[in-house]
Amino acid sequence: MPRMIIISGCSGGGKSTILAELKSRGFSTIEEPGRRIVAEELASGGTALPWVDLEAFARRAIDMALKDMAAAQHLPDPVFFDRSAIDAASALTAITGDKRFLQAMKDQHRYHRRVFMAPPWPEIYVTDPERRHGISEAIAEYDRLQRDYSALDYEVIQLPKLAVSHRVRFLLNEIEQVAEDLPD
């Protein structure tokens, strides 16, 4: 199984920028399911959008993220994910109160034990056609994700608020320190 490493955290916290830098350095990366879903739904006139039908959006994000995990089996190690099935399951649990999806993430769908969280960073936060919620909602999401990843026995590591090259160096150093713990 590839070393599947999650970069999660606050919307607008710089996750996609970090992934773009990792990709430019030759690492395998998986783009955020939510952004891909929003782009598809906007192009097709669909309603599985977080501001229209959040439950349908979260369910679709879980499905897409699980397919991403399967596809990652064939990519060179390590594979970096911009969010994960856990992010989507956390959102679905928040909406419905049904914890089965999060439990499945703990029991059946495991990523590397260290998860890197982009903290709220109001100075760089912007909305766009695919991110319509404000910073307060993004912070609430970050708090929920921190709680849920910890509850699923992941070691949550906060990324520093530094230039992207420094954030990437921090992340790679953290991974290198635990290389012996990464799955084969």
TrEMBL record:
Domain NadR/Ttd14 AAA: start-end pairs: 5-167
List the protein's name.
Answer: AAA family ATPase
| One Pfam entry name | AAA_28
Entry-linked InterPro entries: NadR/Ttd14_AAA_dom (IPR038727), P-loop_NTPase (IPR027417)
Q: Which Gene3D superfamilies match?
A: P-loop containing nucleotide triphosphate hydrolases (3.40.50.300)
Source superkingdom: Bacteria
The scientific name of the source species is: Rhizobium oryzicola
Q: What is the lineage of its organism?
A: Bacteria, Pseudomonadati, Pseudomonadota, Alphaproteobacteria, Hyphomicrobiales
